[in-house]
Amino acid sequence: MVQNDISFTCSGYRLVKSGIVISSYVPPKEVTYKDLLTNNSVGCLTAMVRKDLLGDLRFPICGHEDFALWLKLVKKSKIIYGMQQNLADYNLIEGSVSSSKFKLIPFFWNIYRNEEKLSISLSLYYCIGYLINVILFKYKKTSNTNRTK
After folding, report:
1. Minimal CB count within 10 Å: which of 43, 52, 89, 148?
2. Range of the domain at 59
3. What is the count of structural domains for the chain?
4. Are 6 and 81 in contact (CB under 8 A)?
5. What is the pLDDT of residues 6-51, one digit of tens each?
6. Would residue 97 count as lying in a domain?
7. Is residue 136 part of a domain?
8. Residue 58 in 3-state DSSP?
9. Residue 2 resides in a domain
10. 41-92 residue pLDDT tens
11. How far apart (Å, rounded) are the C-alpha atoms in residues 91 and 3?
C-alpha cells in the first residue's frame, strides 16, 4: 500500500458454515463510490485503510456501520483496490443479520437516505440493485465441501 500510494484496499474471503466452505467472494480490482452503492465489495474482515485516509472518520451509528464508513472513505480515496486472493474466512452464523440479505435492506435504506442523503428514488434504485447483485452475482458457490483448518 505504501509503495503504490494506495489508501484503501480489501481482499477476497471464503464463506464458511459449520466448518465447511460454501462459497467465496473476490472483490473487483477497482471499486468506485458508484460501484459500492450496489455492491458492498469490502468484507470488513479484509479492509485495510491508511490512517491518514481515515482521519477523524469513525463508524457511524446507523446499522451496517462498516458499509456506511466504506462509502465515506471511498469518496475521499476515489478507488478501493481489491486484492484477488481469498485471505480470510467469514463464519456464517444462523439467524444473524448478515446471514439474510433481505434483512439488510432497512439498513441500506437508512444509509442511502440518512448518511448519503440520496433521494427516495435513488435510494430505491440502489436497494433494488444491491438485492439483484448480491442474490444473483456476488458469491461463487463452492462445488466441493472443503473443511476449514
Report:
1. 52
2. 8-141
3. 1
4. yes
5. 999 999 999 999 999 999 999 999 999 999 999 999 999 999 999 9
6. yes
7. yes
8. coil
9. no
10. 999 999 999 999 999 999 999 988 999 999 999 999 999 999 999 999 999 8
11. 32
